[in-house]
Write a structure and sequence with these properties.
The complex is a heterodimer of chains A (191) and B (385). Chain A is an alpha/beta fold and 191 residues long. Chain A has 6 helices and 9 strands. In chain B, helix 3 packs across helix 11, helix 6 crosses helix 9 and helix 9 runs parallel beside helix 10. Classes of the chains: A alpha/beta (191), B alpha/beta (385). Chains A and B meet through helix 2, helix 4, helix 5 and helix 6 of A and helix 3, helix 11 and helix 13 of B.
Chain lengths: 191, 385
């Protein structure tokens, strides 16, 4: 199975004003539909990243920005000659939970040429990182480890996930867990 | 066969959902659709109104005879490391400090361990003394588990315990200690607590005596989905009988520092789904509270779109969840709560414990400018099953 997305799977993109006017569920539903059209309901995790073939671009967002401001910056990325292979929305300061969910949906809908939208467990925490799968994210971005000590004391903010945890989080969000392998193939995890 | 479309039709016709419906909502693959349906009910009941109050917590002692496996708060004996029992003056000092800081708190939430050595007068004097300091304060105190414990320990009926506490100043009961009603689960995780039926009976008695109360469910330990939904149905049945519950509060298990710490904590979508299922199952309980202390501010704010209409209060000095690893702050200012609610596209309403409106609209200032990021002009959307 090839990991390269097909151009045809892209749904038509709504105008920015239309996106900003959508309520939370409508926006999430559109973003999740766009993700599913591209990736057939799969949610990814990666054990071995290949920095030489992936261009991951952080998208910084902060509390107090409007949808319109975010869409303007996203349009610049969308218009670039060589768009990144993945975007990683990164909160600056403390945006609220709903800010984060909307931001993910806007990223998915405004960047049809960017195949992957990463949910970064380090900056979002595991709870929010799972929720954004309802809003267009397609990949858990976290170190996948064989074993992790309990998140206690100094280890409380350890973003690492075991393979089993990653699969549980993705499946809990209603997606089909799928590993992106180092050779570029996709390997679905069957229950 | 229970389909999502059939459940949606029932919800829109205001028909009660069944155990099978509740299980189907938990198992529905798309948590967003379950959330959108719960949001319909939330908006039908409350529109955008989102409630909070100004309160403080007093956990007067953590000495506790019970050894529940999910608890990180209790110290079993006086003198154990970390064990404490407040003197009355210490407890009163907490309230005086709030008054000195010009905090217009309207409620004190009091929950304690089951201390084997304190006389009943400790509790009545605690209530009476707080009322002497601020007669208008609402005392929401003692879970059903504590009331039941006092009845056994001091050889009184539950009604006698409640009557005496009420004479001393008790105004309503908090909802804690319900955990999960299923006997199988209680035997394993909280065998020393009263049974589910006994918990319900304390609330039934309180409701019949004219007191209001809240109710809770601890989720994420060893219970099944069926046991969660059954728990909600038992609460709903008592509510049909008495109408005394104001608010249901789902409580996520926190796995730090307790005997169940090998269990994973509930995940983000599981939290949201539990709020949504609760809103859909408990049609006769007016409010669903997203307890920010336990959920974290971000998840609690998101829950305001998944069935919840209440964020609890400003909260001072919460200890129970913080000893279980909660990393939330222990206090939010009213302005912060107002800002979080407005940022969610909702309308903040300061309430008292009984949901009388204390302040709303322009009377509720948020201390920093906020931006209404969530637009609400496009609400009528088809829910796809």
């Amino acid at each position: 199975m090839s990991a390269s997305p097909t151009e045809d799977a892209r749904p038509a993109l709504a105008a920015p004003e239309a996106l900003a006017a959508l309520d939370l569920f409508a926006l999430g539903r559109q973003a999740a539909a766009a993700r599913d059209a591209r990736w057939s309901g799969r949610g990814f995790f990666v054990r071995t990243r290949r920095p030489e073939t992936e261009r991951v671009l952080p998208f910084l967002f902060r509390h107090g920005e409007s949808d319109a401001e975010r869409l303007t910056r996203l349009a610049e990325i969308a218009a670039s000659a060589a768009p990144p292979s993945a975007i990683i929305p990164t909160p600056v300061g403390e945006p609220f939970g709903l800010d984060t969910l909307r931001c993910f949906a806007l990223c998915r809908l405004a960047l049809p040429r960017v195949p992957h939208l990463h949910a970064d467990v380090t900056t979002l925490g595991p709870r929010l990182a799972q929720m954004v799968f309802g809003f267009g994210a397609d990949e858990l971005y976290a170190p996948i480890v064989a074993e992790r000590a309990l998140r206690l004391g100094d280890n409380a903010n350890n973003p690492s996930l075991t393979r089993k945890e990653a699969v549980t989080l993705i499946r809990g969000a209603g997606l089909l867990p799928c590993e992106r392998m180092a050779d570029g193939t996709l390997q679905e995890v069957t229950p | 066969m229970t389909t999502f479309a059939a459940i949606r039709d029932k919800v829109r016709a205001s028909e009660p959902l069944s155990l099978a419906d509740g299980v189907a909502l938990y198992e529905h693959p798309n948590f967003m659709e379950v959330g959108a349906l719960a949001n319909e009910v939330r908006e039908r009941l409350h529109g955008d109104r989102t409630f909070f109050n100004r309160n403080m917590h007093i956990n007067a002692t953590n000495v506790c005879e019970a050894s529940c496996m999910f608890c990180s708060f209790a110290r079993l004996k006086v003198g154990d490391a970390g064990a404490y029992t407040m003197s009355h003056e210490e407890a009163f000092g907490r309230l005086r400090a709030r008054i000195a800081a010009a905090d217009a708190i309207t409620e004190i939430h009091i929950v304690n361990g089951l201390h084997p050595g304190l006389p009943f007068a400790y509790y009545t004097e605690l209530l009476a003394g707080l009322k002497r300091i601020q007669p208008s304060i609402h005392l929401k105190a003692f879970t059903a588990v504590e009331i039941f414990y006092y009845a056994k320990k001091f050889s009184m009926t539950v009604a006698e315990v409640i009557a005496q506490l009420r004479a001393a100043g008790l105004d309503s009961l908090p909802g804690g200690g319900a955990e999960i009603f299923a006997t199988r689960v209680r035997k394993k995780i909280c065998d020393d607590k009263c049974t589910g039926d006994e918990w319900l009976d304390v609330h039934r008695t309180a409701h019949r005596m004219g007191l209001r109360s809240n109710c809770t469910m601890l989720y994420g330990t060893i219970e099944t989905i069926e046991e969660r939904v059954d728990h909600m149905l038992q609460l709903r049945a008592l509510q049909d009988e008495t109408g005394g519950f104001q608010t249901f509060i789902p409580l996520a298990f926190h796995p730090d520092n307790n005997a169940l710490m090998k269990l994973p904590a509930p995940t983000g979508t599981e939290d949201l789904r539990t709020y949504a299922v609760a809103r859909l199952m408990l049609h006769n309980i007016p409010h669903i509270k997203a307890y920010w202390i336990m959920l974290g501010v971000k998840t609690a704010q998101t829950a305001l779109w998944f069935g919840a209409d209440d964020l609890d209060g400003t909260v001072q000095e919460e200890r129970i969840y913080h000893m279980a690893g909660a990393e939330t702050p222990q206090v939010m200012s009213p302005a912060e709560i107002v800002r979080i609610i407005r940022n969610a596209g909702r309308t903040p309403v300061e309430r008292d414990t009984l949901y009388n409106v204390v302040a709303e609209g322009a009377a509720l200032a948020s201390d920093k400018p906020f931006r209404r990021d969530v637009r609400r002009d496009n609400l009528k959307l088809e829910v796809v099953s």
